[in-house]
Amino acid sequence: MFWTLPTILTWTRIVAIPLIAGVFYLPLSPAACNLIATIMFIVFALTDWLDGWLARKLGQTSSFGAFLDPVADKFLVCASLLVLVHLGRADVFVALIIIGREIAISALREWMAQIGASRSVAVHMLGKVKTTVQMVAIPFLLYQGVVFGVVDTGAWGRVLIWAAAVLTVWSMVYYLQKALPEIRARVK
What we know:
The chain is mainly alpha-helical. It has helices at residues 5-23, 30-57, 63-86, 92-114, 125-143, 153-187; strands at 146-147, 151-152. It has a single domain, classed as CDP-alcohol phosphotransferase transmembrane (TM) domain (Four Helix Bundle (Hemerythrin (Met), subunit A), Up-down Bundle), CATH 1.20.120.1760. 79% of the residues lie in helices and 2% in strands. A two-stranded antiparallel sheet has the order 1-2. Strand 1 and strand 2 (151-152) form a beta hairpin. Helix 2 packs antiparallel against helix 3 (63-86) and helix 3 (63-86) packs across helix 5 (125-143).
């Protein structure tokens, strides 16, 4: 099921990475670049929901799709964070926390799957909340402007990305605690 519609939508999140980064090198005003990058991020981020819904509705779920979906999400988030750090809109420390957690939990999940204990690190609501906060913070930071004459997206984005960093650590601790009994049993 390599070329189903849901899998193609997942691939678009990976293809989006150089497009979003490249927008900031176009000979456009900073405001135009911000707007284009924000719209692109939102559209590509929505494919995360859409590809899963379509896969279930069309009966096109696959192990490859289940593998690629979180990888595409992580690539999109990590690349966007690096762009934001480069633009001076996100702190390097926040990016290190979020990217480091993604690497650590991905490695933990891979190891737990190898030992047959993947259920202990299955996706939890805390991880979903973390992802949601990230997916709201990133477009706010990409836009970096005032909406409706009132909402300073840069300020709100900074608050939300720090909230995402806190949720990132919290969810990592949660997953590590869930895996700890298996880890102790295997390390002896």
